[in-house]
């Protein structure tokens, strides 16, 4: 199966239920969209992420009730540097959705979703630990994998593979 | 009183440290502390060619290496848009189900050992040995198999492989009966597991639990059936679900899963299609040894793949498979070069571990051991 090019035109994807829902709620929440390799990605405004998640979770059409994963990609030296990636799964509908938030390196902060999914706790701590992205409203934002007194955030692209020491 | 359990403690299945606040024998608060086995695999992946990442994926979850191999190669194949021949898909399914049984056998043996049933452990490892021999037969390795390749499978399985698998599949269901004879009706086992460490479906979903941990609470989801990958839609099997959400329910789910898995293995062995085991993609898949000696082009492709890797079109993919522990996911980002820009593993155990405080708080200290065993954690996967 040859790869078909990614669709990034908002108009073409409007029929996607999750996107339609977000557009009805607040059109300014959707920054961009991408449909590539059968996977849907929505870039959400950083200030509206938690509310967008709450709407996607509670809506009876979408029901993205399961937070599969949170991770981050560092696009150093480009700006906005960080992309925090949320993978949602709807257990009743068997659908997946990817949400992304772009953060610049001067203030890598996004609102925590632990109030919606307590399971986000470890995922957000891991991203904080390895990328230095902060999650406001997180109940216990401490390092998860690295030692407490570790310097730097290892998965950042400007962190050497051999480490600082 | 604060009690420190682990990281060197036989019942924590690796290097899990639990900080327990106890009041007499009762657990008031529990805090897992992880990271003792963190090796930075995600960072290492960024410095390797795509094909060099496969051996790293074995080391993440050392009890189900082939599941990790599969998840990673599926993600990269999706990035490349490769079509995999049916024989390779069926072999992958067959070996994955053997891996699931292998992993469940280790779980059952150690879990029973934690609770005090010594015999089951010896029985389980007896059958596990047979599976490891099958793995050794196809891949040359007992545990770190690295048998799947991007675009197919490393080698044609040796002669007599399917006979050996069929032989094992015909013997195994009787062995599961043996384990069940020892445990299922055993009153001591029942007292230690029934009604212990319960979790509701809502809590399990909210905490991100998956796999048998979620299904034992009554949520009927299995990625093999609901979002099929690698040809699972061609197989018929049931998904065991229980509703109690306690240690016993998780035990029942996993034991029944072993029976379903062996049924899939039988179907795969009997209906194994003929044909190539590698995709027709000379720039990605290494050529046959014989072709390299006779064809110039094959030699050039071989040289190029080994020295420069293969470029993967830019994009991103999240591929999830049903591992023995739950939803194992690989998120691979490509920037168009021969090395992955980012590889992230969604570890089922990391999310399942978060259910542990919910299960144990307010219960007896001795139940903590039963609860840890019942969520079947592998610290290599949690810490990566």
Helix content of chain A: 10-25%
End-to-end separation of chain A: 47 Å
What oligomeric state is this?
Answer: heterodimer
Low-confidence stretches of chain A: none
Q: What's the CATH architecture name of the domain at 10-112 in chain A?
A: 2-Layer Sandwich
Mean pLDDT of chain A: 87
The strand order across the widest sheet of chain B is 1-2-3
Cα gyration radius of chain A (Å): 17 Å
Radius of gyration of chain B, in Å, reads 21 Å
How many β-strands of chain B, per DSSP?
Answer: 8
Tell me the name of the CATH homologous superfamily of the domain at 10-112 in chain A.
NADH:ubiquinone oxidoreductase Nqo5 subunit
Quickly count the helices of chain B: 17
> How many individual β-strands of chain A?
7
Task: Specify the overall morphology of chain A.
Answer: globular
Helix content range of chain B? 40-55%
Q: Given the structure, what is the number of helices of chain A?
A: 3
CATH topology name of the domain at 10-112 in chain A, in short, is Beta Polymerase, domain 2
Largest interface: A-B, 41 and 43 residues
């Amino acid at each position: 199966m040859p790869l078909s090019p990614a669709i990034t035109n908002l108009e073409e994807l409007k029929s996607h239920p999750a996107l339609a829902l977000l557009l009805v709620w607040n059109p300014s929440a959707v920054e961009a969209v991408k449909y590539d390799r059968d996977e849907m990605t929505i870039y959400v405004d950083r200030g509206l992420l938690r509310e967008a998640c709450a709407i996607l979770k509670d809506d009876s059409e979408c029901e993205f009730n399961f937070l599969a994963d949170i991770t981050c990609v560092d696009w150093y030296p480009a700006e906005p540097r960080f992309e925090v990636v949320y993978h949602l799964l709807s257990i009743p509908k068997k659908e997946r959705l990817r949400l992304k938030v772009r953060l610049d390196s001067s203030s890598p902060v996004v609102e925590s979703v632990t109030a919606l999914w307590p399971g986000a706790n470890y995922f957000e701590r891991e991203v904080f630990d390895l990328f230095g992205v902060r999650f406001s409203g997180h109940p216990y934002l401490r390092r998860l994998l690295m030692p407490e007194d570790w310097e730097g955030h290892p998965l950042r692209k400007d962190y050497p593979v051999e480490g600082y020491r | 009183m604060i009690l420190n359990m682990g990281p060197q403690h036989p019942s924590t299945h690796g290097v899990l440290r639990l900080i327990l606040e106890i009041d007499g024998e009762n657990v008031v608060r529990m805090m897992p502390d992880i990271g003792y086995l963190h090796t930075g695999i995600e960072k290492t992946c960024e410095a390797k060619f795509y094909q060099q990442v496969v051996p790293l994926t074995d080391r993440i979850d050392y009890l189900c290496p082939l599941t990790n191999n599969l998840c990673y190669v599926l993600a990269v194949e999706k990035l490349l848009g490769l079509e995999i021949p049916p024989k390779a898909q069926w072999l992958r399914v067959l070996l994955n189900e053997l891996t699931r049984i292998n992993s469940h056998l280790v779980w059952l043996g150690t879990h029973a050992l934690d609770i005090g049933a010594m015999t089951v452990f010896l029985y389980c490892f007896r059958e596990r040995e047979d599976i490891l021999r099958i793995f050794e037969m196809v891949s040359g390795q007992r545990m770190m198999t690295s048998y799947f390749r991007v675009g197919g499978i490393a080698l044609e399985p040796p002669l007599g492989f399917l006979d050996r698998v069929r032989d094992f599949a015909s013997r195994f269901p009787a062995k599961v009966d043996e384990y069940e004879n020892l445990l299922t009706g055993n009153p001591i086992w029942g007292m230690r597991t029934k009604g212990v460490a319960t979790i509701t479906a809502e809590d399990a979903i909210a905490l991100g639990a998956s796999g048998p941990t979620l299904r034992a609470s009554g949520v009927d989801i299995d990625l093999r059936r609901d979002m099929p990958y690698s040809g699972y839609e061609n197989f018929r099997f049931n998904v065991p679900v229980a509703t109690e959400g306690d240690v016993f329910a998780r035990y029942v789910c996993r034991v029944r899963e072993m029976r379903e898995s062996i049924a899939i293995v039988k179907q795969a062995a009997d209906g194994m299609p003929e044909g190539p085991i590698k995709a027709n993609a000379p720039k990605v898949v290494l050529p046959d040894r014989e072709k390299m000696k006779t064809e110039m082009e094959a030699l050039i492709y071989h040289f190029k793949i080994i020295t420069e890797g293969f470029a993967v079109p830019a994009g991103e993919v999240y591929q999830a498979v049903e591992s023995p522990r739950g939803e194992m996911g690989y998120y691979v980002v490509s920037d168009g070069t021969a090395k992955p820009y980012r590889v992230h593993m969604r570890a089922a155990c990391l999310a399942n571990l978060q259910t542990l405080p919910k299960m144990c708080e307010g219960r007896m200290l001795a139940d903590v051991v039963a609860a840890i065993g019942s969520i079947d954690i592998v610290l290599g996967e949690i810490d990566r």
